[in-house]
Design goal:
The chain is α/β, with parallel strands linked by helices. The chain contains ten helices and seven strands. The protein has a seven-stranded parallel sheet, sandwiched between helices. It is globular. Keywords: Oxidoreductase.
Length: 259
């Protein structure tokens, strides 16, 4: 059975991607650590759109999570046509004050899991002769360092560079790779990262997770390389090409002050 694999599917952008694919009659395999929420989402989508929605409840920060997920896919006989590599989180604070255990988990989820899952699913697609699609979720953070969130921004810079590299590699196998780069989005990300008071959070309205997911889905279908959500974000990325990294980092520091 063909399925779409979505990580971080219990809330935010991942949940909205699940809704979009279900509306388009795709069967789903949803992954997140929040089991009750995930099962309810799967049940709702199955009922509303007459599709099959399976769940794999797992914290992707765990060492063998991707191996267990790939084993489950093989046991079920699923054929993954699309991967939405969405799971990830951030943390806020000075590097000398933040918690290493949380940061270690962040690096594992945002980098190691993204790489390992993309690698595993790409091999799976090639073995099954599937001309598939992979979407890795980066961020506007992919384009700039930030002293308040230095590790998170570095992980997202990695995601963009990695995605562009494997895009060139996998296109020869009929697999497209798109990097979705949203800006600040109305989701649970800010609360988990402890940045609800930052000036760039407080000022102005934020796009919804649904808007970002719809934008990402459209560009994934087109086979776009990089999809930066929002005109202001696209303009910002353009302008940063002409500015020094040190200047951009200083501006990001002021904009993200949490007071």
């Amino acid at each position: 059975m063909n399925i779409v694999l979505i990580t971080g599917a219990s809330s935010g952008i991942g949940k909205e991607f699940a809704e979009i694919y279900a509306k388009n009659k795709a069967n789903l395999l949803l992954v997140a650590r929040s089991g009750d929420k995930l099962k309810q989402i799967a049940a709702n989508l199955s009922s509303a759109y007459a599709i099959q929605a399976d769940v794999f409840v797992k914290d992707l920060a765990e060492e063998n999570a991707v191996e267990k997920l790939m084993s489950y896919i093989n046991e079920k006989g699923y054929e993954v046509t699309d991967l939405i590599n969405n799971a990830g989180f951030g943390d806020y604070g000075s590097i000398i004050e933040t918690d290493w255990a949380k940061e270690n988990s962040m690096i594992h989820v945002n980098v190691v899991t993204v790489v390992y899952l993309a690698k595993g699913i790409a091999k799976h697609m090639i073995d099954k002769n599937i001309k598939g699609k992979i979407l890795n979720v980066g961020s506007i953070a992919s384009f700039m360092p930030n002293a308040h969130m230095s590790i998170y921004h570095a992980t997202k810079a990695f995601v963009l560079s990695f995605s562009l590299g494997i895009r060139e590699d996998l296109k020869r196998k009929g697999i497209t790779v798109t990097t979705l780069c949203p800006g600040v989005t109305a989701s649970g990300f800010q609360e988990r990262a402890n940045i609800t008071k930052a000036s760039f959070i407080k000022g102005g309205s934020m796009p919804t997770s649904k808007e970002v997911a719809e934008f990402g889905y459209k560009h994934l279908q087109r086979g776009s390389a990089v999809a930066i959500h929002g005109f202001k974000n696209r303009f910002l990325v353009f302008i940063m090409r002409f500015l020094s990294k040190t200047f951009v980092t200083a501006v990001a520091y002021r904009m993200s002050s949490n007071d």
